[in-house]
Design brief:
With 482 residues, the chain is an alpha/beta fold. The protein folds into two domains: 121 residues, no CATH class; 340 residues, TIM Barrel. Helices cover 43% and strands 11% of the residues. The protein contains 19 helices and twelve strands. A ten-stranded mixed sheet has the order 11-10-8-7-6-4-1-2-3-12. A two-stranded antiparallel sheet has the order 5-9. Helix 15 runs antiparallel to helix 16. The longest helix has 19 residues. It is globular. The two termini are 39 Å apart.
Protein backbone atom coordinates (compact mmCIF):
# COMPACT_ATOMS: atom_id res chain seq x y z
CA UNK A 1 0.00 0.00 0.00
CA UNK A 2 1.21 3.58 -0.64
CA UNK A 3 1.21 4.43 3.05
CA UNK A 4 0.92 2.52 6.29
CA UNK A 5 -2.37 2.99 8.19
CA UNK A 6 -0.69 4.24 11.36
CA UNK A 7 1.22 6.99 9.55
CA UNK A 8 0.21 10.58 9.18
CA UNK A 9 1.26 12.54 6.12
CA UNK A 10 4.33 14.06 7.76
CA UNK A 11 5.56 10.63 8.91
CA UNK A 12 5.02 9.26 5.40
CA UNK A 13 7.08 12.08 3.88
CA UNK A 14 9.92 11.51 6.33
CA UNK A 15 9.92 7.74 5.80
CA UNK A 16 9.43 7.46 2.04
CA UNK A 17 10.46 10.72 0.40
CA UNK A 18 13.06 12.39 2.60
CA UNK A 19 15.06 9.17 2.99
CA UNK A 20 15.69 9.40 -0.75
CA UNK A 21 16.25 13.14 -0.86
CA UNK A 22 14.56 16.19 0.60
CA UNK A 23 13.43 17.25 -2.87
CA UNK A 24 12.29 13.89 -4.25
CA UNK A 25 8.79 13.78 -5.78
CA UNK A 26 7.24 10.86 -7.66
CA UNK A 27 5.33 13.19 -9.98
CA UNK A 28 8.44 13.88 -12.06
CA UNK A 29 8.50 10.22 -13.10
CA UNK A 30 4.95 8.93 -12.96
CA UNK A 31 2.63 11.92 -13.42
CA UNK A 32 2.19 14.39 -16.26
CA UNK A 33 -0.18 17.01 -17.57
CA UNK A 34 0.11 17.53 -21.32
CA UNK A 35 -1.70 20.02 -23.51
CA UNK A 36 -1.77 18.20 -26.84
CA UNK A 37 -3.22 21.14 -28.73
CA UNK A 38 -0.14 23.28 -28.11
CA UNK A 39 2.42 20.55 -27.44
CA UNK A 40 3.33 21.57 -23.90
CA UNK A 41 3.77 19.48 -20.76
CA UNK A 42 4.45 19.66 -17.03
CA UNK A 43 4.93 17.10 -14.28
CA UNK A 44 2.00 18.50 -12.29
CA UNK A 45 -0.10 21.67 -12.23
CA UNK A 46 2.44 23.76 -10.32
CA UNK A 47 5.62 24.00 -12.48
CA UNK A 48 5.63 26.05 -15.68
CA UNK A 49 4.73 23.94 -18.69
CA UNK A 50 7.44 23.60 -21.30
CA UNK A 51 7.35 22.95 -25.02
CA UNK A 52 7.78 19.35 -26.21
CA UNK A 53 10.47 19.48 -28.92
CA UNK A 54 9.12 17.86 -32.09
CA UNK A 55 12.55 16.37 -32.79
CA UNK A 56 12.27 14.33 -29.59
CA UNK A 57 8.96 12.85 -30.79
CA UNK A 58 10.39 11.55 -34.06
CA UNK A 59 11.35 8.09 -32.79
CA UNK A 60 9.88 8.29 -29.31
CA UNK A 61 6.16 9.08 -28.87
CA UNK A 62 6.68 8.82 -25.10
CA UNK A 63 8.58 12.13 -25.37
CA UNK A 64 5.23 13.85 -24.88
CA UNK A 65 6.16 13.07 -21.25
CA UNK A 66 9.84 12.05 -21.26
CA UNK A 67 11.37 15.33 -22.38
CA UNK A 68 15.01 16.22 -21.79
CA UNK A 69 13.81 18.97 -19.46
CA UNK A 70 11.95 16.54 -17.17
CA UNK A 71 14.92 14.18 -17.15
CA UNK A 72 17.11 17.00 -15.85
CA UNK A 73 14.55 17.73 -13.10
CA UNK A 74 14.65 14.04 -12.14
CA UNK A 75 18.43 14.14 -11.88
CA UNK A 76 18.22 17.17 -9.59
CA UNK A 77 15.71 15.47 -7.31
CA UNK A 78 17.82 12.31 -7.07
CA UNK A 79 20.71 14.52 -5.93
CA UNK A 80 18.56 16.38 -3.41
CA UNK A 81 18.59 19.64 -5.35
CA UNK A 82 15.43 21.76 -5.48
CA UNK A 83 14.19 22.53 -9.01
CA UNK A 84 13.15 26.18 -8.99
CA UNK A 85 10.04 25.32 -11.03
CA UNK A 86 8.72 23.45 -7.98
CA UNK A 87 8.86 26.52 -5.73
CA UNK A 88 5.19 26.11 -4.81
CA UNK A 89 6.06 23.05 -2.71
CA UNK A 90 9.25 24.58 -1.30
CA UNK A 91 7.23 27.58 -0.09
CA UNK A 92 4.81 25.25 1.66
CA UNK A 93 7.54 23.17 3.29
CA UNK A 94 9.52 26.20 4.40
CA UNK A 95 6.53 27.71 6.20
CA UNK A 96 7.06 25.37 9.14
CA UNK A 97 8.82 22.10 9.88
CA UNK A 98 5.75 19.85 9.71
CA UNK A 99 4.12 21.51 6.67
CA UNK A 100 2.84 19.04 4.09
CA UNK A 101 3.22 20.15 0.49
CA UNK A 102 1.82 18.70 -2.71
CA UNK A 103 5.12 16.81 -3.09
CA UNK A 104 3.63 14.42 -0.54
CA UNK A 105 0.16 14.29 -2.10
CA UNK A 106 1.64 13.70 -5.57
CA UNK A 107 3.85 10.85 -4.36
CA UNK A 108 1.67 8.97 -1.88
CA UNK A 109 -0.56 7.65 -4.67
CA UNK A 110 2.32 5.45 -5.85
CA UNK A 111 3.69 2.40 -4.04
CA UNK A 112 6.86 2.54 -2.01
CA UNK A 113 8.40 0.09 -4.49
CA UNK A 114 7.56 2.27 -7.52
CA UNK A 115 9.09 5.31 -5.86
CA UNK A 116 12.23 3.40 -4.93
CA UNK A 117 12.63 2.20 -8.52
CA UNK A 118 12.32 5.77 -9.76
CA UNK A 119 14.93 6.98 -7.30
CA UNK A 120 17.38 4.26 -8.35
CA UNK A 121 16.76 4.56 -12.11
CA UNK A 122 18.96 6.39 -14.57
CA UNK A 123 17.52 9.90 -14.82
CA UNK A 124 17.73 9.68 -18.63
CA UNK A 125 15.54 6.58 -18.86
CA UNK A 126 12.12 6.86 -20.50
CA UNK A 127 9.52 6.30 -17.81
CA UNK A 128 6.09 4.74 -18.27
CA UNK A 129 3.48 7.00 -16.77
CA UNK A 130 1.15 5.85 -14.02
CA UNK A 131 -1.16 8.88 -13.97
CA UNK A 132 -1.66 11.07 -17.02
CA UNK A 133 -3.77 14.20 -17.51
CA UNK A 134 -4.29 15.38 -21.07
CA UNK A 135 -6.13 18.18 -22.83
CA UNK A 136 -6.95 17.64 -26.49
CA UNK A 137 -7.91 21.27 -27.06
CA UNK A 138 -9.05 24.49 -25.35
CA UNK A 139 -12.73 24.35 -26.36
CA UNK A 140 -14.70 25.55 -23.34
CA UNK A 141 -18.12 27.04 -22.65
CA UNK A 142 -16.94 29.07 -19.63
CA UNK A 143 -14.59 32.05 -19.34
CA UNK A 144 -13.52 32.02 -15.69
CA UNK A 145 -11.96 35.26 -14.42
CA UNK A 146 -8.57 33.69 -13.63
CA UNK A 147 -8.39 31.66 -16.83
CA UNK A 148 -7.44 33.11 -20.23
CA UNK A 149 -7.76 32.63 -23.97
CA UNK A 150 -5.01 30.00 -24.07
CA UNK A 151 -7.30 27.63 -22.17
CA UNK A 152 -10.80 28.72 -23.19
CA UNK A 153 -12.32 29.43 -26.59
CA UNK A 154 -14.97 31.54 -24.86
CA UNK A 155 -12.19 33.70 -23.43
CA UNK A 156 -10.72 33.91 -26.93
CA UNK A 157 -14.04 35.16 -28.30
CA UNK A 158 -14.06 37.90 -25.67
CA UNK A 159 -10.58 39.10 -26.68
CA UNK A 160 -11.37 38.94 -30.39
CA UNK A 161 -14.62 40.86 -29.91
CA UNK A 162 -13.55 43.44 -27.32
CA UNK A 163 -9.79 43.59 -27.77
CA UNK A 164 -7.09 43.01 -25.18
CA UNK A 165 -7.39 44.15 -21.58
CA UNK A 166 -5.61 47.47 -21.17
CA UNK A 167 -3.53 49.23 -18.51
CA UNK A 168 -2.41 46.00 -16.81
CA UNK A 169 1.25 46.02 -15.83
CA UNK A 170 1.90 43.27 -13.24
CA UNK A 171 3.36 39.82 -13.80
CA UNK A 172 0.91 37.52 -15.52
CA UNK A 173 -1.12 40.43 -16.87
CA UNK A 174 0.06 39.62 -20.39
CA UNK A 175 -2.27 36.61 -20.37
CA UNK A 176 -5.12 39.05 -21.05
CA UNK A 177 -3.44 40.69 -24.01
CA UNK A 178 -3.71 37.79 -26.49
CA UNK A 179 -6.36 35.55 -28.02
CA UNK A 180 -4.55 32.24 -27.40
CA UNK A 181 -4.23 31.43 -31.08
CA UNK A 182 -0.69 30.14 -30.48
CA UNK A 183 -2.23 27.17 -28.62
CA UNK A 184 -3.93 25.97 -31.82
CA UNK A 185 -1.13 25.81 -34.44
CA UNK A 186 -2.77 22.83 -36.18
CA UNK A 187 -6.00 22.81 -38.16
CA UNK A 188 -7.24 19.44 -36.95
CA UNK A 189 -6.26 16.31 -35.03
CA UNK A 190 -4.83 14.61 -38.11
CA UNK A 191 -2.33 17.46 -38.55
CA UNK A 192 -1.35 17.61 -34.88
CA UNK A 193 1.85 15.58 -34.20
CA UNK A 194 1.24 15.65 -30.44
CA UNK A 195 -2.22 14.10 -30.67
CA UNK A 196 -0.86 11.57 -33.16
CA UNK A 197 2.00 10.76 -30.74
CA UNK A 198 -0.51 10.24 -27.92
CA UNK A 199 -2.56 7.70 -29.85
CA UNK A 200 0.63 5.99 -31.11
CA UNK A 201 1.99 5.70 -27.56
CA UNK A 202 -1.46 4.65 -26.33
CA UNK A 203 -1.53 1.70 -28.74
CA UNK A 204 2.12 0.72 -28.18
CA UNK A 205 2.14 0.36 -24.41
CA UNK A 206 0.82 3.45 -22.63
CA UNK A 207 -2.63 1.90 -22.18
CA UNK A 208 -0.96 -1.08 -20.49
CA UNK A 209 1.16 0.92 -18.02
CA UNK A 210 -1.29 3.62 -16.98
CA UNK A 211 -3.14 3.34 -13.71
CA UNK A 212 -5.20 6.48 -14.34
CA UNK A 213 -5.97 8.64 -17.37
CA UNK A 214 -7.66 11.98 -16.84
CA UNK A 215 -8.98 14.24 -19.60
CA UNK A 216 -9.18 17.96 -19.00
CA UNK A 217 -9.62 20.95 -21.29
CA UNK A 218 -11.14 23.34 -22.04
CA UNK A 219 -14.26 21.36 -21.33
CA UNK A 220 -13.66 17.68 -22.20
CA UNK A 221 -17.35 16.90 -22.75
CA UNK A 222 -17.05 19.15 -25.84
CA UNK A 223 -14.27 17.00 -27.38
CA UNK A 224 -14.90 14.01 -29.64
CA UNK A 225 -11.66 12.44 -28.38
CA UNK A 226 -13.15 12.21 -24.88
CA UNK A 227 -16.15 10.23 -26.09
CA UNK A 228 -13.76 8.04 -28.15
CA UNK A 229 -11.97 7.17 -24.91
CA UNK A 230 -15.29 6.46 -23.17
CA UNK A 231 -16.04 3.96 -25.96
CA UNK A 232 -12.59 2.37 -25.54
CA UNK A 233 -13.12 1.89 -21.81
CA UNK A 234 -16.58 0.46 -22.35
CA UNK A 235 -15.16 -2.08 -24.80
CA UNK A 236 -12.09 -3.13 -22.79
CA UNK A 237 -11.65 -5.26 -19.68
CA UNK A 238 -9.18 -2.95 -17.98
CA UNK A 239 -8.41 -1.96 -14.43
CA UNK A 240 -7.19 1.48 -15.50
CA UNK A 241 -9.05 4.34 -13.87
CA UNK A 242 -10.59 6.89 -16.22
CA UNK A 243 -11.46 10.40 -15.12
CA UNK A 244 -12.55 13.68 -16.62
CA UNK A 245 -12.39 17.28 -15.40
CA UNK A 246 -15.78 18.73 -16.26
CA UNK A 247 -17.39 22.01 -15.24
CA UNK A 248 -20.75 20.15 -15.45
CA UNK A 249 -22.40 23.10 -17.13
CA UNK A 250 -24.07 21.07 -19.84
CA UNK A 251 -27.55 20.41 -21.16
CA UNK A 252 -29.55 17.56 -19.67
CA UNK A 253 -29.02 15.32 -22.72
CA UNK A 254 -25.21 15.61 -22.34
CA UNK A 255 -25.40 14.76 -18.64
CA UNK A 256 -27.75 11.88 -19.55
CA UNK A 257 -25.12 10.62 -22.03
CA UNK A 258 -22.34 10.97 -19.46
CA UNK A 259 -24.33 9.04 -16.84
CA UNK A 260 -25.08 6.31 -19.41
CA UNK A 261 -21.40 5.99 -20.41
CA UNK A 262 -20.33 5.61 -16.78
CA UNK A 263 -22.60 2.59 -16.35
CA UNK A 264 -20.23 0.46 -18.41
CA UNK A 265 -17.12 1.67 -16.59
CA UNK A 266 -15.13 -0.33 -14.09
CA UNK A 267 -13.32 2.62 -12.55
CA UNK A 268 -14.60 6.10 -13.36
CA UNK A 269 -13.87 9.28 -11.41
CA UNK A 270 -15.32 12.72 -11.95
CA UNK A 271 -13.47 15.93 -11.18
CA UNK A 272 -15.40 19.16 -11.27
CA UNK A 273 -14.65 22.71 -10.19
CA UNK A 274 -16.14 25.37 -7.97
CA UNK A 275 -14.98 27.31 -4.91
CA UNK A 276 -17.68 29.84 -4.01
CA UNK A 277 -21.47 30.01 -3.82
CA UNK A 278 -24.31 31.68 -5.69
CA UNK A 279 -23.72 35.02 -7.36
CA UNK A 280 -20.10 35.11 -6.20
CA UNK A 281 -19.38 31.76 -7.87
CA UNK A 282 -21.07 32.98 -11.06
CA UNK A 283 -19.00 36.17 -10.96
CA UNK A 284 -15.71 34.26 -10.65
CA UNK A 285 -16.64 31.61 -13.21
CA UNK A 286 -18.34 33.50 -16.03
CA UNK A 287 -20.93 31.28 -17.70
CA UNK A 288 -21.53 29.20 -14.58
CA UNK A 289 -25.07 28.64 -13.39
CA UNK A 290 -24.51 27.71 -9.74
CA UNK A 291 -27.87 25.99 -9.28
CA UNK A 292 -27.33 24.00 -12.49
CA UNK A 293 -23.90 22.95 -11.24
CA UNK A 294 -25.36 21.81 -7.90
CA UNK A 295 -28.15 19.94 -9.68
CA UNK A 296 -25.75 18.14 -12.03
CA UNK A 297 -23.26 17.17 -9.35
CA UNK A 298 -26.15 15.71 -7.32
CA UNK A 299 -27.24 13.76 -10.40
CA UNK A 300 -23.73 12.37 -10.85
CA UNK A 301 -23.56 11.43 -7.15
CA UNK A 302 -26.90 9.62 -7.26
CA UNK A 303 -27.22 8.32 -10.84
CA UNK A 304 -23.66 8.09 -12.11
CA UNK A 305 -21.44 5.04 -11.69
CA UNK A 306 -18.55 6.97 -10.16
CA UNK A 307 -15.87 5.60 -7.89
CA UNK A 308 -15.27 9.09 -6.62
CA UNK A 309 -16.16 12.72 -7.27
CA UNK A 310 -13.66 15.43 -6.43
CA UNK A 311 -14.35 19.16 -6.41
CA UNK A 312 -11.25 21.11 -7.41
CA UNK A 313 -11.29 24.50 -5.71
CA UNK A 314 -9.08 27.15 -7.31
CA UNK A 315 -8.30 29.40 -4.37
CA UNK A 316 -8.35 32.94 -5.68
CA UNK A 317 -8.85 36.16 -3.75
CA UNK A 318 -12.57 36.45 -4.49
CA UNK A 319 -13.64 32.95 -3.48
CA UNK A 320 -12.52 33.52 0.12
CA UNK A 321 -15.60 35.64 0.81
CA UNK A 322 -17.93 32.63 0.54
CA UNK A 323 -15.52 29.71 0.87
CA UNK A 324 -16.95 28.60 4.22
CA UNK A 325 -20.48 28.63 2.76
CA UNK A 326 -19.19 26.55 -0.12
CA UNK A 327 -17.54 24.02 2.20
CA UNK A 328 -20.83 23.80 4.08
CA UNK A 329 -22.54 22.97 0.75
CA UNK A 330 -19.92 20.27 0.10
CA UNK A 331 -20.58 18.77 3.50
CA UNK A 332 -24.31 18.60 2.68
CA UNK A 333 -23.36 16.60 -0.43
CA UNK A 334 -21.34 14.24 1.77
CA UNK A 335 -24.43 13.81 3.94
CA UNK A 336 -26.50 13.14 0.80
CA UNK A 337 -24.23 10.20 -0.08
CA UNK A 338 -23.80 9.24 3.59
CA UNK A 339 -20.08 9.03 2.91
CA UNK A 340 -16.99 11.19 2.54
CA UNK A 341 -17.84 11.73 -1.13
CA UNK A 342 -17.47 14.19 -2.75
CA UNK A 343 -14.00 15.27 -1.70
CA UNK A 344 -12.40 18.68 -2.18
CA UNK A 345 -8.91 19.74 -3.16
CA UNK A 346 -7.74 23.31 -2.50
CA UNK A 347 -5.40 24.54 -5.23
CA UNK A 348 -3.81 27.90 -4.53
CA UNK A 349 -3.87 30.31 -7.47
CA UNK A 350 -0.49 31.92 -8.17
CA UNK A 351 -0.94 33.31 -11.69
CA UNK A 352 -2.01 35.98 -12.39
CA UNK A 353 -0.59 37.34 -9.14
CA UNK A 354 -3.16 40.12 -8.81
CA UNK A 355 -5.89 37.49 -8.39
CA UNK A 356 -4.00 35.53 -5.73
CA UNK A 357 -5.31 35.69 -2.15
CA UNK A 358 -1.93 37.16 -1.24
CA UNK A 359 -2.64 40.20 -3.42
CA UNK A 360 -5.24 41.37 -0.94
CA UNK A 361 -4.24 44.01 1.63
CA UNK A 362 -3.48 42.88 5.17
CA UNK A 363 -6.69 44.14 6.73
CA UNK A 364 -8.77 42.02 4.31
CA UNK A 365 -6.51 38.98 4.65
CA UNK A 366 -6.80 39.25 8.45
CA UNK A 367 -10.58 39.56 8.18
CA UNK A 368 -10.79 36.49 5.95
CA UNK A 369 -8.29 34.52 8.03
CA UNK A 370 -10.28 35.15 11.21
CA UNK A 371 -13.53 34.24 9.50
CA UNK A 372 -12.08 31.05 8.01
CA UNK A 373 -10.20 29.90 11.12
CA UNK A 374 -13.26 30.49 13.33
CA UNK A 375 -15.39 28.40 10.98
CA UNK A 376 -12.77 25.64 10.86
CA UNK A 377 -12.47 25.49 14.62
CA UNK A 378 -16.19 24.64 14.72
CA UNK A 379 -16.00 22.05 11.91
CA UNK A 380 -12.56 20.43 11.98
CA UNK A 381 -13.79 17.42 13.97
CA UNK A 382 -16.71 16.66 11.63
CA UNK A 383 -16.31 13.02 10.62
CA UNK A 384 -16.94 13.62 6.92
CA UNK A 385 -13.55 15.25 6.27
CA UNK A 386 -10.66 13.16 4.98
CA UNK A 387 -7.22 13.70 6.49
CA UNK A 388 -5.96 15.22 3.23
CA UNK A 389 -8.93 17.63 3.16
CA UNK A 390 -8.16 18.74 6.69
CA UNK A 391 -4.49 19.21 5.81
CA UNK A 392 -5.39 21.30 2.74
CA UNK A 393 -7.82 23.53 4.65
CA UNK A 394 -5.34 24.09 7.48
CA UNK A 395 -2.58 24.79 4.96
CA UNK A 396 -4.69 27.51 3.34
CA UNK A 397 -5.46 29.11 6.71
CA UNK A 398 -1.72 29.21 7.47
CA UNK A 399 -0.92 30.40 3.95
CA UNK A 400 -3.04 33.53 4.34
CA UNK A 401 -0.88 34.86 7.16
CA UNK A 402 2.50 33.17 6.56
CA UNK A 403 3.38 33.51 2.87
CA UNK A 404 3.90 37.00 1.50
CA UNK A 405 3.99 36.45 -2.28
CA UNK A 406 2.41 33.94 -4.70
CA UNK A 407 5.72 33.24 -6.45
CA UNK A 408 9.27 34.53 -6.72
CA UNK A 409 8.57 36.95 -9.61
CA UNK A 410 5.55 38.64 -8.07
CA UNK A 411 5.12 42.37 -8.69
CA UNK A 412 5.03 44.74 -5.72
CA UNK A 413 1.72 45.06 -3.82
CA UNK A 414 0.82 48.50 -5.17
CA UNK A 415 1.14 47.24 -8.75
CA UNK A 416 -0.99 44.19 -7.97
CA UNK A 417 -3.68 46.34 -6.35
CA UNK A 418 -3.85 48.67 -9.35
CA UNK A 419 -4.18 45.69 -11.70
CA UNK A 420 -6.86 44.15 -9.47
CA UNK A 421 -8.97 47.30 -9.84
CA UNK A 422 -8.18 47.78 -13.52
CA UNK A 423 -8.91 44.19 -14.51
CA UNK A 424 -12.23 43.82 -12.70
CA UNK A 425 -13.49 47.18 -13.93
CA UNK A 426 -13.07 45.96 -17.51
CA UNK A 427 -14.30 42.46 -16.65
CA UNK A 428 -17.54 43.91 -15.27
CA UNK A 429 -18.24 45.84 -18.47
CA UNK A 430 -17.37 42.93 -20.80
CA UNK A 431 -19.30 40.32 -18.84
CA UNK A 432 -22.19 42.48 -17.59
CA UNK A 433 -21.25 41.89 -13.97
CA UNK A 434 -20.66 43.92 -10.80
CA UNK A 435 -18.05 43.48 -8.10
CA UNK A 436 -20.76 44.60 -5.67
CA UNK A 437 -21.81 40.95 -5.23
CA UNK A 438 -18.86 40.81 -2.79
CA UNK A 439 -18.83 42.41 0.70
CA UNK A 440 -18.33 46.11 1.30
CA UNK A 441 -14.91 45.54 2.86
CA UNK A 442 -13.68 44.54 -0.59
CA UNK A 443 -15.46 47.16 -2.68
CA UNK A 444 -14.45 49.99 -0.29
CA UNK A 445 -10.81 48.92 -0.65
CA UNK A 446 -11.09 48.76 -4.46
CA UNK A 447 -12.63 52.24 -4.55
CA UNK A 448 -9.65 53.56 -2.57
CA UNK A 449 -7.09 52.31 -5.12
CA UNK A 450 -5.81 55.03 -7.49
CA UNK A 451 -6.42 54.46 -11.18
CA UNK A 452 -3.48 53.32 -13.29
CA UNK A 453 -2.48 56.37 -15.30
CA UNK A 454 -0.49 56.67 -18.52
CA UNK A 455 2.79 57.47 -16.75
CA UNK A 456 2.72 54.12 -14.97
CA UNK A 457 2.06 52.28 -18.22
CA UNK A 458 4.93 54.15 -19.88
CA UNK A 459 7.26 53.28 -17.01
CA UNK A 460 6.13 49.64 -17.06
CA UNK A 461 6.88 49.34 -20.75
CA UNK A 462 10.25 51.06 -20.32
CA UNK A 463 11.27 48.82 -17.43
CA UNK A 464 9.93 45.66 -19.05
CA UNK A 465 7.27 44.95 -16.42
CA UNK A 466 4.70 44.05 -19.05
CA UNK A 467 5.47 40.49 -20.00
CA UNK A 468 5.33 39.34 -23.60
CA UNK A 469 3.44 36.33 -24.98
CA UNK A 470 5.32 33.06 -25.21
CA UNK A 471 4.63 30.01 -27.34
CA UNK A 472 7.25 28.07 -25.40
CA UNK A 473 6.35 28.25 -21.74
CA UNK A 474 3.28 28.49 -19.58
CA UNK A 475 3.75 29.86 -16.09
CA UNK A 476 0.90 27.72 -14.86
CA UNK A 477 -2.07 25.80 -16.26
CA UNK A 478 -3.88 29.13 -15.95
CA UNK A 479 -1.30 31.40 -17.60
CA UNK A 480 0.51 31.58 -20.91
CA UNK A 481 3.38 33.95 -20.33
CA UNK A 482 6.93 33.46 -19.09
Amino acid sequence: MPKQPEENLQQYRERVLDTKSESFCGAKWFNATTWLGSGTTASCHHPPAHQIPLIELHDNPSAIHNTKHKKEMRRMMQKGERPSECEYCWKMEDMKKDAVSDRTFKSIIYSDEQLQQAYEADANDNTNLKTFEIAFDRTCNLACSYCNASFSTTWAKDIKKNGEYTNLVSDGAGAYKQDGSWTQPYKNDDDNPYIQAFWKWWDSGLADSLEELRVTGGEPLMSGNTWKLFDWFNEQDTDMRFAINSNLIAKDDIIDKLILKTQGMKHFDLYTSCEATGAQAEYIRDGLDYEQWLRNIKRMLVEGNCNGINIMMTINSLCLFSITDFLDEVYKLKELTQSRTPTVSLNLLRFPSFQSPLALPNHIKDYLHNQFSTWWEAHKDDIGWHEFEKASIERLIDYLVTVDAPHRRTSNPTTLWRDFKTFYAQYDVRRNKSLSVFPKILTDWVDSIPDTDASIIELAEKEGWILKPSSRNIDDPLASYD
